[in-house]
Design goal:
The chain has a 4-stranded mixed sheet. The chain is an alpha/beta fold and 195 residues long. The protein has helices at 2-16, 65-77, 84-89, 92-119, 122-144, 150-154, 157-163, 178-181, and strands spanning 48-53, 59-64, 171-176, 186-191. The longest helix has 28 residues, at 92-119. The chain is built from 8 helices and 4 strands. It has one domain (2-17, 47-75, 90-191).
Length: 195
């Protein structure tokens, strides 16, 4: 039991550890990276064509290759901030802690299962493992249930536009050749099904 508490204390210490750079001066924010709220600025102007399609199941935003290159060039000049999700996914301390806790949970569960076989019968352990497998399968099925198709969310677009209300739905982004779209820089294909 003493080893378990020592391991928990070590895990807590690792979880709270952060890299500290005491000998490096904190960088001063440049005027372009000031935390004050800025007015949104336009980085690119292009054409957008909205095309209704009754055969599509999901909305598609088609961007021509030349518009994509212009957008990349415009965004290359803009100051960028690293998103929170990106900083979390690239944090080595959090990754190590997640691995440590996964290892601990599997180890403790294995020791508990091995000891429970001695006190309980093998039928009880088999029933427990079966129930765990059923719950896991139910969770996978629930996560895999995608819901209605994308066209379901876009079907009220005409009514909402006339009312001045927003409509949200999924969109797939495609990079297409310049000849596919023509003179327009971007094309939004919206799945509108007839009633």
């Amino acid at each position: 039991m003493k080893k378990f508490f020592s391991l928990c204390a070590l895990s807590l210490l690792l979880a709270l550890s952060l890299p500290v750079y005491g000998d490096i001066a904190k960088p001063r924010p440049s005027p372009s990276q000031s935390p004050s709220p800025e007015v949104p600025r336009i980085v690119l102007h292009t054409r957008l064509v909205v095309v209704p399609d009754n055969k599509a199941w999901e909305a598609r935003l088609q961007i021509s290759q030349s518009s994509l290159q212009e957008l990349r060039a415009a965004l290359g000049n803009a100051p960028g901030n690293e998103s929170t999700a990106r900083s979390i996914t690239h944090s080595s301390t959090r990754t190590i802690m997640a691995g440590v806790f996964m290892f601990l949970s599997l180890s403790i569960a294995g020791v508990w299962l091995a000891r429970s076989v001695q006190t309980r019968g093998p039928k009880a352990v088999a029933a427990f493992l079966f129930c765990t497998a059923v719950i896991g399968a139910a969770a996978i099925i629930a996560q895999a249930n995608a819901g209605p198709p994308g066209s379901y969310y876009w079907k009220k677009l005409p009514q909402n536009l006339s009312k001045g209300e927003p409509t949200s739905g999924g969109v797939d982004i495609e990079i297409v050749s310049d000849e596919t779209i023509g003179s327009s820089g971007m094309q939004l294909v919206v799945p509108i099904k007839p009633n």
